[in-house]
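Consider this:
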Amino acid sequence: MSKVAWIGLGVMGHPLAGHLKAHGHDVTVFNRTHETAERWVAEFGGKRAATPAEAAAGAEFVFSCVRKDEDVREVTQGADGAFRALGKGAIFIDHTSASADIARELDAAARDRGAGSLDAPVSGGQSGAEDGTLTVMVGGDAADFAKAKPVIETYARAVNLIGPPGSGQLTKMVNQICIAGLIEGLAEALHFANSAGLDIGKVMDTISKGAAQSWQMDHRWQTMIEGKFDFGFAVDLVRKDFAICFDEARRNGASLPVTALVDQFYAEVQEMGGGRWDTSSLIARLERK
């Protein structure tokens, strides 16, 4: 079993760090809100550190799962950042959905210390984190990946090395672009079925056996119809991710017209007060009276 540091105990980080502890790893956690870290320790055991550097001291693997680039930079390279204590041979693993630029920056900073770094954003949402069934897309060095993969597999059903540093974050952008169109399509389909007076349960049971099937359809159509939008990944966060996609697209020349349109639909959801609703809430703007 490994000595592990975990930084960031939000909706995703809390259960993921818990999986590591439950599998016997020696886990020390840090969270900016210390009460959150204390609650995690009370639930799972382990230890709480006062700073990211204190958490990382002596750790073989240092994980982070925070909100955005600036947060990752602060908890790694800030005054009390984890990289201040990152030991030679240790591996930093970032599960934050961030930019490819920060991933490359952290890889260079880790190598300067004789350590490794993997950008490893995840897909599967809060339920996947709690169930230990996430998909993890990784960028970085193959040798570092080989060392870290068995630890990550504690809470993942798929862990794949995509390519060099930044590749994991770029793949997460692909994932978010795909999901944008899927959720909007499902929202419009449900709205249309409702407007047509169809038995939506029978409709979904039928078309989910054919070419229209998707994870979103299987897991979200019922709650979308019921107006329940408290299942994890928030609108505020998906718009943050879209901004990263658009920034990267401006550099690589990709055209993202549908994603840009869905982003504006999510802006409408925010104006409705749904910034913390989950991403399936796109139907709310169609069904509002």
About this structure: The domain at 3-163 is CATH 3.40.50.720 (Rossmann fold). The longest helix spans residues 167-195.
